[in-house]
Amino acid sequence: MSTRRLVKSFRDASRGIAYVFRHEQNFRIQLCFALVVVAAMFVFGLRTSEMVVILLLILLVLLLEFLNSAFEKFIDIVKPRLAYQVEVIKDILAAMVLFASLGATVIGLIIFWPHILRLVL
């Protein structure tokens, strides 16, 4: 791959990130939570393995939000012809992100709980 194509790829990806950040409120909310969690990892002194799990969960949720946003934009193109099916697909996509977020929250609480208890007790 030429340097020019590589630069173009990064530029395209940056535009995609900027678009999702500007237009998707849920992404901005999830990103804020992610930043708080990353800060908490250092405050509580999590082990490296715990940090890796937390970072992978954050990445999973944010990537699913990107995927959800992309599919929703694509689905909007065909919406007039398939109105009911489009709503079902969008609901399923939203459920996917919600399910991942809830799972990440539960796993995060399991990891953080002993550290929180140590701080409180």
From TrEMBL:
Primary localisation category? membrane
Offer an example of a GO molecular function term for this protein: metal ion binding
Q: Name one GO biological process term.
A: phospholipid biosynthetic process
Q: Which UniProt keywords apply?
A: ATP-binding, Cell membrane, Kinase, Lipid biosynthesis, Lipid metabolism, Magnesium, Membrane, Metal-binding, Nucleotide-binding, Phospholipid biosynthesis, Phospholipid metabolism, Transferase, Transmembrane, Transmembrane helix
- Describe cofactor binding as the record notes it: Mn(2+), Zn(2+), Cd(2+) and Co(2+) support activity to lesser extents.
The residues listed in the UniProt record as binding substrate, with positions renumbered to this chain, are: 5, 65
Q: Which InterPro entries match?
A: DAGK, DAGK_sf
Residues that, per the record, bind ATP: 5, 24, 72, 90-91
Q: Which residues form the active site?
A: 65 (proton acceptor)
Q: Does the keyword Disulfide bond apply?
A: no
Q: Name one GO cellular component term.
A: plasma membrane
Q: What is this protein called?
A: Diacylglycerol kinase
Source organism (scientific name)? Candidatus Magasanikbacteria bacterium RIFCSPHIGHO2_02_FULL_51_14
